Amino acid sequence: xxxxxxxxxxxxxxxxxxxxxxxxxxxxxxxxxxxxxxxxxxxxxxxxxxxxxxxxxxxxxxxxxxxxxxxxxxxxxxxxxxxxxxxxxxxxxxxxxxxxxxxxxxxxx
Amino acid sequence: xxxxxxxxxxxxxxxxxxxxxxxxxxxxxxxxxxxxxxxxxxxxxxxxxxxxxxxxxxxxxxxxxxxxxxxxxxxxxxxxxxxxxxxxxxxxxxxxxxxxxxxxxxxxxxxxxxxxxxxxxxxxxxxxxxxxxxxxxxxxxxxxxxxxxxxxxxxxxxxxxxxxxxxxxxxxxxxx
Lengths: 109, 176
What we know:
The complex is a heterodimer of chains A (109) and B (176). Helix content of chain A is 54%, strand content 13%.
């Protein structure tokens, strides 16, 4: 959807994933989309360097999220929201609809 | 230039002027402005320069290398100083708004462009508003106490950031 703008379908997927999940980390994104870890790491660092994403360490994991201080945050979110409308429901269910409510330890799925 | 023992303010002036004379226009932002506006009450070791327009990062790397700063990830380090330099992408902004008025600081024939005290308060409040960072709130208050600040403008900006409630907390702290 936004590949011509972002120059990469991976960047679009990474941004959509982080946006819909709140925060995420390179390994999670790579395994979710079957991307090379290096590719995801480079894209994340690139987006962080551009001020689009922030990152913070939680334990040993570096989490990335949409930078609330990015001057075009509102416009970027509007663009991502619009892109989500065009994504097939099946794909949306698989990647962009995370379960956010907690699940108690040991509770069967 | 020998930068051993140089103050953050003089280092900022030196780097900013050097970059400007080589076609790289920047605005100093972040913690270094707090150090300058609070007369060293808060010490920052980071010099955050925001580009005013896009410049190839390789050009910046090569320019900073010529004055002894080596790229270490996103930062530039120099063996003679503990301060590190970061060059941030344009535009200079505070929250969702562009920086409108840029202050100037001169030393001899060298020039530093930096956030005004009012925009520096907004910059710190942005960190408090969005990250709940209490140290940034203290810094914003400290800049207000040491400088002339347009609080009406800070209030207008805070509303635009949807942070009226936190602006009220900031105001209460300021009155204490």
